[in-house]
Every structure is written in C-alpha cells, then in structure tokens.
Amino acid sequence: MGSGNKPIKPYTRPRGGGAKAIGDLTPEIGRTAFRRFGFVQSSVVTRWPEIVGSAHARVCAPEAIRFPPGEKAEGILELVVIPAHAPLISQVTPEIIERVNRFFGYRAVARVKLRHGAVKPPAGAPAAKPPPSLKPIPLELSESLRDIGDPELRMVLESLARSLENTASEPKDKSRS
C-alpha cells in the first residue's frame, strides 16, 4: 500500500433537477399505453366530454383509434357504449366523427365501431356546457339554413344564429342606455 491512496467516496447518484408535479408526468407515463391502444393524443380520452358533450360522454367512451397500416388518417374510432344507449349513439355517429376530426384538425376518423360495455362516467369533470349543435335554432332560421350544402358552413351559421338568439333574449342593461 502506497502513501498516495485517497479515501474512497461513496457513490452518489446524480439528480435530475428539482421535483416535478405528478400532473406534468402523467401525459408522459400514459403516452405509451395510449399509443398502444391507438391514441396518438391522450387528450382525446381526457377531453372526451368537451369533444362530444357531457351527455354523450356519460354513455360512451373512446377505446381505440385503429388506422390503416402506415397511415394516420381515415381510421376507425372504437367506442364502448352502454347497451341501452347504443341506438342513440349510432344515430349521432356522423356528428361524433365530425367533432373528433375537428379536434384533430384533419380527417383522422372515417368510421365508428361500437362495442357494448360498461362506461365509467368522467369523474370529477366539470359539467361541460352542451354542444352548440344540440341547442334549438329559431324555426325561421333553421328553414333557411337547411338548403346550405356545405355541412361545416351550415354549422357555423347555425352557431351564429344561436348566439344571436341568446343575445336577443338577454335583458338589456338599462344603465348603458
């Protein structure tokens, strides 16, 4: 033994910075599982009540999006539906497809496949306001909008008509006049 021996320091693992909030880690942890089941964006699952409305979110939930091999468009959205509500959901599938595609920003979903099963309602989620397309439109406006061929333009105009109807029915503030 030589006189040049230094005392050995115990190994300390380098730390990766400060503590992180669990909310910041959740998307990273869940991303692999969501991708395995076909969800490129986990926010489809977490924001489902916003996408389809709280009434539909209570009776159906996304299970997977299956794309054709090598593609990320024209997929099949697989939904779990409470059996008693399956006929209703099958009637509104075109609207669900449109809402999901609007959420993605492109034609990600072309079809919806329903599977009967138990649906866990979104726990603790704030009650999302009903989707604008489910609010009634004044009768005289709905007749004139029916002839518009472009569904997206018709939805925008219907939304405008609803907002105009809502502002017309609100009481006016007398102090401004």
Chart the SSEs and their pairings.
Blueprint (H helix, E strand, L loop, with lengths): L21 H15 L6 H4 L1 H5 L1 H4 L2 E7 L8 E7 L4 H6 L1 H12 L4 E8 L22 H7 L5 H19 L8
Parallel strand pairs: 2-3
Antiparallel strand pairs: 1-2
Provide an overview of this structure:
It contains eight helices and three strands, in the order H-H-H-H-E-E-H-H-E-H-H. A hairpin with an 8-residue loop joins strand 1 (60-66) and strand 2 (75-81). It starts with 21 loop residues before the first helix and ends in an 8-residue tail after the last helix. It is α+β, with helices and mostly antiparallel strands and 177 residues long. It has helices at residues 22-36, 43-46, 48-52, 54-57, 86-91, 93-104, 139-145, 151-169, and strands at residues 60-66, 75-81, 109-116. It has two domains: 27-130, GMP Synthetase, Chain A, domain 3 (2-Layer Sandwich); 135-169, no CATH class. It has a three-stranded mixed beta sheet. The longest helix is centred in the C-terminal third of the chain and has 19 residues, at 151-169.
The helix-strand sequence is: HHHHEEHHEHH
Treating each run of at least 4 consecutive H or I residues as one helix, how many helices? 8
- End-to-end Cα distance: 98 Å
Task: Please name the CATH topology of the largest domain.
Answer: GMP Synthetase, Chain A, domain 3
Number of strands: 3
Number of domains: 2
Mean pLDDT: 75
How would you describe the shape?
elongated
Helix content: 40-55%
Structural class: alpha+beta
Which ranges are low-confidence, i.e. pLDDT below 50, for 5 or more consecutive residues? none
